[in-house]
Each structure stands twice: as structure tokens, then as C-alpha cells.
Amino acid sequence: MSSKKNESSLQTNRRGLLGAGAMLAVGSLALSARRSSAAEAAAFDPSFEGFILNDKIQDDSLVRIQQAGVLRVGISDDPPYSFVDQSTGQYSGIEADIVQYIMKMLKIPQYKVDTVSFDGLIPGLLASRYDIIGDSMHYTAQRAKVVDFSFPTYFYAEWLMVPKGSPQEGATSIDSLGGRTIGSQLGNDYSEWLKATPGVVYKGYKMPEDMINDLRAGRIDGIIFDLPILAVLAKKHPEYGLVLAPNYKPRTFKNPAHYSRHIFRKEDVQFREAWSRALQWMQMNGKISEILDRYGLAEYSN
Fold first, then answer.
1. What secondary structure letter does DSSP report for 174?
2. What does R_g of the chain's alpha carbons equal in angstroms?
3. pLDDT in tens, 22-45
């Protein structure tokens, strides 16, 4: 009696386990199908010859943006990279041109720009205020812990800007600036270098124009910042009396780690992969160089 009862109970348990296993298998297949169909549904413009998307990605982050019809872009308002033109209200600059070109490739019709301070860009992305950081940002190991990076866009180095005729005009490196107060933007690589250099007094700024004003007023002795921005400033405003230190040797050297990139949440794999493929296509077809030429920055970049 007891043996039969145990056998019956065992068969019931087996059937239950088999049923549960079947349900899990069906659920897994359904989830896989949903993921597969989501990846396959990602659209792109076939008129860009040779451009294709990877249809094996296991999330639908690009599809969601395409369905919404709006790309939410985070920027820090820093010409010539990425800014809102006050005369037109339009998203403008090198990064804006790249972003809007890729939007055409990926069939995203509209954008919405959210402007924050540079050191607030990554926190804003992680809080889902926007879908992408469409500004100039470099890879660092610290950033890579929390976000992912696109294919490289273009290269530029940092440089030292000082008052014309000042002793620091002869500086050759950050290490040669001991005893000087040097400014840079909060949250960037240069600030970390300055803070780690013995003898250098570091002053951080949220906005580039504030450190330019302090340099002009003599409140700091120099600034370390992006060469393209400083070069444009020196050309457009010679009356400021600020120059690029001619003998300065940048720490940033030309390899993929030091190229500018766009930034994504780690979970948005489909979106990042498609965006990177579009950037590769633009590089291969000379479109990035064309954009840099429009801003007169080809000699400082790529």
C-alpha cells in the first residue's frame, strides 16, 4: 500500500516538474522570439550604401526610440562641439551635426536637447533624462564602470592657454606649471591630471566661459582644455590677449582611447551597436572629416 502510494506521488511530482519545465521552455522561447523580433524591427535608411544593422542584438533599445520618434540628447553647451544656437534655438556644433546625420541613417525624425553641466552629463543619462550623451567625451576606466562608449568619432588633444607674454607661455607640460593656479572644467580628465600634479594649484569650473573670464582677469595663470575650443577662441578673440603655449606637449596622444565618443547606458546594447555602426560608416565615407572641415578644425582633429 505504502509503496504504491509513494510511486503515485513520485509520478505526480515528475509530471509537475515536466510541466513546469515545459512552461519555462515555452516562456524562454517566447522571450527569445520577442527579443529577436525587436532586433529585426530596427529600421535604417538603405540609401546609405553599405550600411547595415546587426539583427542579432538581444534588446529593443533602438526600436523604442524609433517608435517614440524622438531622440533625447544630453549636452553641456560647449561650442564648437555641442550647443544650442541662441539665434535659432537649434542644436548645433560638431557633435550636433554628427548626431543629426546618424538620426537620418537610423530613421529617427526628431530630437529633444537637455542641457546640463559637463559633470552632470553621466548622472543625467543614468537617471534616464535622455537617451544619449551627444557631446564630446573621452573614455576613462572610471566612466566605463557605469556607462558604455560608441565607436570613436574624432581625436583632439588638450592644450595650455595663458596670457600673452606671461612666464607660463614657455611651459612645456603640466609638470612645468608648479606654483601656478591652473583651471579646467569639472569632471574632465585634465582636472584629474592637474589635481594629481605636485605644486599645481587647481581650480575647477562648471562652464568654460567662467574659466576664460578668470584667466582674462588674472585670477588664474592658465587653463588646460580642449585644443579645438582654445584654438577657435584665440582666433576669434585676439583682443582677449590669450595665446596657446607654443612649446606645450599634450599628454593626450593619438590612439582610440583618446578619441571623442558618444555615451550610452550599458543596457541599451541595440542602440549603441547601431550608433557605432553608423559612426564607422561615416568615418569610412569621409563624413566626419567633412563636418570637421566645416568648423575649420581639420588641422586639430583626426
1. G
2. 26
3. 443 444 434 344 444 444 458 899
Whole domain around residue 184: which residue ranges? 158-244
What cell numbers appear for 294 in the block? 566645416
- The 3-state DSSP class for residue 161 equals strand
Check if the beta carbon of residue 80 is closer than 8 Å to that of residue 48.
no
Residue 88 lies in a domain: yes
Residue with cell 543614468: 126
Cα gap 276→34, rounded to integer Å: 24
> Is 100 within a domain?
yes
Asked if the structure places residue 35 within a domain, the reply is: no
Identify whether residues 220 and 286 lie together within a single domain.
Answer: no
Domain tally for the chain?
A: 2
Positions of E strands within 86-230: 91-92, 110-115, 132-138, 147-149, 158-163, 181-185, 201-205, 222-226
- Give the pLDDT confidence of 118-132 residue by residue, as tens digits: 999 999 999 999 999
Quote the cell numbers at residue 99: 548626431
Asked whether residue 51 is domain-assigned, the answer is no
- pTM score of the predicted model: 0.74
Looking up cell 510511486, which residue turns up?
Answer: 7
